[in-house]
Amino acid sequence: MTKLDSVGYGVATGKIILMGEHAVVYGEPAIALPFPAVRINAKVEKIAQSIVELDCYFYQGPLTEAPQQLTNLITAIKESLAVLQQPQQGFKLSITSTVPAERGMGSSAAVAVATIRALFSYFKQPLADSVLLELTNQAEKIAHGNPSGLDAAMTSGSVPLYYVKNQPFAPISLNLKAYLIVADTGITGQTKKAVADVAALLESHPQEIGDKIVTLGNLVKQSKHAIEENNPVLLGGYMNQAQQILVDLTVSSPEIDLLVAAANQAGALGAKLTGGGRGGCLVALATTKSAAEQIEAALIEAGATITWIYQIGEK
Ligand code: MEV
């Protein structure tokens, strides 16, 4: 019998896709980085009853009867218990989060990662990176429908990646002297629907949309060189070109377009949506802290609900 600690903890950070969202679903590369400014903490505690209590999701009862909206979380719990060879039993899961939900920052994957870590810690079992990734991917398939695996890779790992679906992870060194300004439109993004809509668009206009996806992939490859050469001006230009393609793919939104324009007018080297789009967050680029602060002020003025300034490489 496993001797149980009565509490287990798990943590996960959010993520930012710098370049390549949506195209990554079709095998093109993406560049993404962990975003430690936002994180999720999960705590699993023993309780007397043999029910699961999902504190902050207001659910108490058997796992099998948990509400449909929680299926990604429930998948993470059920699959973890299966790997841990534990029957369903009573515990309380509490989650605190500073990752804005449904804003393209990997909230659903991060919730799964933090929960899986907390469960393994609760049962005092080691958790291999490959097992964490596999379990997170299973939960993400429920949340996103047809995920590229990028969100699971980013939130379960801790290094920037040059990510290509179904290929071994390639960490990328972001030796770029630059600041990212991240801003939330305050509008809930719709990753699952946006991904499905791009798929439908590709089916109805295979040549035109296929070309745009390949162009987006090429911009990611060029961005990798710009980063390696520490050339933020070039990278910013690629970000603006990527944003235009994301608009063409119908995954931007009037709120994102407004904030992108505000960032560029305030001197950003480039700005684009990050994540699934249709709301959610955008990311802008600057080379100095004072330029970043000026862009942040313009974004707030234009209606951003939350903003962050992140110096690339900062832990
Ligand atoms: C979502 O964060 C990123 C998308 O490319 C979807 C995916 O990669 O699964 C839109």
From TrEMBL:
Pfam families: GHMP_kinases_C, GHMP_kinases_N. This is Mevalonate kinase. InterPro entries: Galactokinase, GHMP_kinase_C_dom, GHMP_kinase_C_sf, GHMP_kinase_N_dom, Mev_gal_kin, Ribosomal_Su5_D2-typ_SF, Ribsml_uS5_D2-typ_fold_subgr. It comes from Carnobacterium maltaromaticum LMA28. GO terms for cellular component: cytosol. Residues 81-154 form the GHMP kinase N-terminal domain. The gene is mvk. The keyword Kinase applies. It comes from the Bacteria. The lineage of its organism: Bacteria, Bacillati, Bacillota, Bacilli, Lactobacillales. Keywords: ATP-binding, Cytoplasm, Kinase, Lipid biosynthesis, Lipid metabolism, Magnesium, Nucleotide-binding, Transferase. Gene3D superfamilies: 3.30.230.10, GHMP kinase, C-terminal domain (3.30.70.890). GO terms for biological process: galactose metabolic process; isopentenyl diphosphate biosynthetic process, mevalonate pathway. Signal peptide: none annotated. Its EC number is 2.7.1.36.
